[in-house]
Write a structure and sequence with these properties.
The chain is of the alpha+beta class. Helix content is 36%, strand content 18%. It is built from 14 helices and 23 strands. The strands form seven sheets. Strands 2-11-10-9-7-3-4 form a seven-stranded mixed sheet, with helices on both faces. A four-stranded antiparallel sheet has the order 12-14-17-16, with helices on one face.
């Protein structure tokens, strides 16, 4: 008999390694010992005394109430299908089937999926670009106003803040602009769950009165993967409709292990957050100074605020740029893992992204510092300005409704033979998951060229199968 998955994960977790990736509990380091030892004893179901997530009246209702008080919301829902399920419920509640949603181009893949599944018309605006790091940032206020005025019939506006790089937009202005047009504001704040627990961090969108705010509990709090919070930050959302839509999105057998973990994670963050984040930020300031003094690396910091419409930065998100060296951040990430047992959250062409929580110790940062200084000392410095990244092609307006293209018969064609055809699936470059094609969009020569170059540069292209695209049958 064999259990290959369990054995593979056990072998991996037995290695001595440093976690700069999610989940935020850092290999169980941040889980209370009493819970870690008895977690499966709370893996129960809806019984007398355990309450019901889909109609909470007892302990779950009280836990959600305490979470709402901690986050400053009008109502907070525990979600066990991740931020994906929470976003789907928010979008369906705010927009309705067949409505129109305005969203950023680098929105999470679940936003596009929701639009396909619920026949929602999506209008995507472009975010600004931080050239010095080669990463997407926030939309300009002018971009927001233009797209809001052009699509006045939209029901909701969605913004991702912070993004994967810890870049935050001006949510206060967004709330005002969106509410003046009688729309709802949805904020995908999956990477900012910790914002509510320290004055040293950016203010949560909930505090600005955003209507729907989605937090991913496992990214930056001590909760297991697949846990999330959905907050209602104003009186605009219909609370009962939101609860009903969540019941449609989520399993009818919610994990009480997840629910208890979220309750404990909120309690821990609320109790220890101020001192814990103060210590973490102090350690990170020292790390950044040391790394930039001893290498040619740059780190994303306060001196970038104001550029590319960056309103604030999450000081706990570590973004390290390797543009000064003849290398890629992806290669650095592999070397850190294979030679030093250090695992980053992700890497793009130029930047290594490390996700830190208070469970990361000063020893973790020292190991990362020593490793990077040693790696960089052996790298040749770049003598010429690196070739600029190829401009991302404009996102084509679908010629076939995405919901129809998604369900229509299709065939798989080699990328080079797909010109002029209609895409059946979403095609995105990861990281940071910027869509290049939507279902129903026509495939242009520029798009094919961009995808081919991306593959040659070693980037991951989601939606391709061995270099081929799914297209609609003629």
């Amino acid at each position: 008999m064999a259990a290959p998955l369990y054995q593979a994960i056990r072998n991996f977790t037995k290695k001595e390694k440093v976690s700069f990736h999610m989940p935020g509990h850092k290999n169980g380091r941040g889980i209370p010992s009493f819970f870690a030892k008895s977690a499966f004893s709370v893996d129960t179901t809806e019984l007398l005394g355990t309450d019901n997530l889909h109609a909470p009246e007892g302990a779950i209702a009280k836990a959600e109430q305490l979470a709402g008080e901690a986050f400053g919301s009008k109502r907070t829902f525990f979600c066990v299908n991740g931020a994906t399920g929470a976003l789907h419920a928010a979008i369906l509640s705010a927009v309705g089937r067949g409505g129109k949603l305005i969203a950023g181009r680098s929105s999470h893949a679940s936003v596009i999926a929701a639009c396909m599944l619920y026949d929602i018309e999506a209008v995507f605006y472009e975010e600004s670009f931080l050239d010095s790091f080669g990463i997407p940032a926030m939309p300009s206020y002018r971009t927001m106003i233009d797209v809001l005025d052009k699509h006045a019939d939209a029901k909701a506006f969605l913004i991702t803040s912070p993004n994967y790089y810890g870049i935050c937009g001006d949510i206060g202005k967004a709330v005002q602009a969106v509410h003046r047009r009688n729309m709802a504001l949805i904020v995908d704040e999956a990477h900012g769950t910790h914002f509510s627990f320290s004055p040293l961090l950016p203010k949560s969108a909930v505090r600005f009165g955003a209507d729907y705010v989605v937090n991913s509990a496992h990214k930056t709090l001590c909760a297991p993967t697949q846990t999330a919070f959905l907050h209602l930050g104003s009186d605009l959302p219909d609370e009962k409709a939101v609860q009903y839509h969540l019941s449609l999105m989520e399993t009818s057998s919610p994990s009480y292990l997840f629910l208890c973990a979220m309750d404990l994670a909120r309690e821990k963050a609320q109790k220890n957050g101020k001192s814990a984040y103060s210590a973490l930020i102090r350690n990170l300031i020292f790390f950044r100074h040391q790394l930039e003094r001893k290498t040619k690396c740059k780190t994303l910091g306060g001196d970038q605020t104001g550029f590319a419409n960056i309103h604030m930065l999450d000081p706990t998100r570590l973004v390290i740029n390797f543009r000064a060296y003849e290398t890629t951040a992806a290669d650095i990430s592999v070397q850190l893992a294979e030679e030093y047992g250090i695992y980053a959250e992700m890497a793009d062409r130029e930047n290594l992204v490390c996700l830190l929580t208070p469970e990361n110790t000063i020893h973790d940062l020292q190991r990362l510092s020593h490793a990077l200084i040693k790696i960089c000392s052996a790298l040749p410095e770049r003598t010429q300005t690196p070739e600029p990244s190829v401009s991302t092609p404009a996102l084509q307006t679908p010629e076939v409704k995405p919901s129809n293209a998604f369900s229509a018969p299709g065939i798989l064609l080699p990328l080079a033979e797909a010109e002029g055809r209609i895409s059946k699936r979403t095609v995105s470059i990861y990281p940071p998951n910027i869509p290049i094609l939507l279902p129903g969009s026509r495939i242009t020569p520029e798009i094919i060229s961009y995808l081919q170059i991306s593959l040659l540069n070693g980037l991951s292209v989601s939606g391709l199968e061995k270099g081929s695209l799914w297209v609609l049958q003629d």
